Amino acid sequence: ILNPRESVEMLSFGPDRIGHGCCLTDDLHDMLTKRPIPIELCLTSNVLSGSVGSYNDHHFADFYARGYPIVLGADDSGVFATTLSKEYTLASDAFSLSKVRGQATSGGSGRGSSDPHQADLFVLAKQAVEYIFAEEDVKTDLRARMARFETDWTSEQQKILLNQGCTLS
């Protein structure tokens, strides 16, 4: 529900994170992006509730393209029948985000080429750690887990691609 006066007060207060961000006038959008206050975006909730017209019209695209701090969320999983995994899949499909680092395709020469998005979904998940409400030791642990996962995943993907005759650029 659009309520510019309340939104100005909220943004002036300077919260640690904002949920949804669907009802922003141009002035409120400018005010928000000058901070920058991370936004939790819930794609399915926003579309099914009518806050945005479709996944392709979702303001995720604008915030993501600007490099604005965003976190994907599932909102009320029971009401909207979604999970965080589904939200990442929707983001990947609607906004052409890559799922794996160095996703390769076999060309006529048998050589692969790297995905230009450099594992957007993984980067998005890694960045989300910075915006969660948790103690620093929890964030440090999560960062370490993500780094180990990235190393292991990259190594496994390279083995698979090499076995298929592809190379990563």
Element-by-element helix/strand order:
HEHEHHEHHHH
Global shape: globular
**N- and C-termini, Cα separation:** 47 Å
Strand order of the largest sheet: 1-2-3
Q: What is the count of DSSP helices, taking H or I runs of 4+ residues?
A: 8
Number of strands: 3
Mean pLDDT: 78
Major sheet: size, sense and barrel closure?
3 strands, parallel
In the predicted model, the low-confidence regions spanning at least 5 consecutive residues are: 100-117
Query: Helix proportion of residues, in percent?
Result: 40-55%
Structure commentary:
The chain has 8 helices and 3 strands. It is mainly alpha-helical and 169 residues long. It has a 3-stranded parallel beta sheet with strand order 1-2-3. Strand 1 (18-19), helix 2 and strand 2 form a beta-alpha-beta unit. The longest helix has 28 residues, at 136-163. It starts with a helix and ends in a 6-residue tail after the last helix. Mean pLDDT is 78; it is low at 100-117.
Blueprint of the fold:
Blueprint: H1 4-13, E1 18-19, H2 26-33, E2 39-41, H3 43-48, H4 60-66, E3 70-72, H5 77-80, H6 84-95, H7 120-128, H8 136-163
Parallel strand pairs: 1-2, 2-3
Main attributes of the structure:
169 residues, mainly alpha, 3-stranded parallel sheet, 8 helices
In short:
With 169 residues, this protein is mainly alpha-helical.
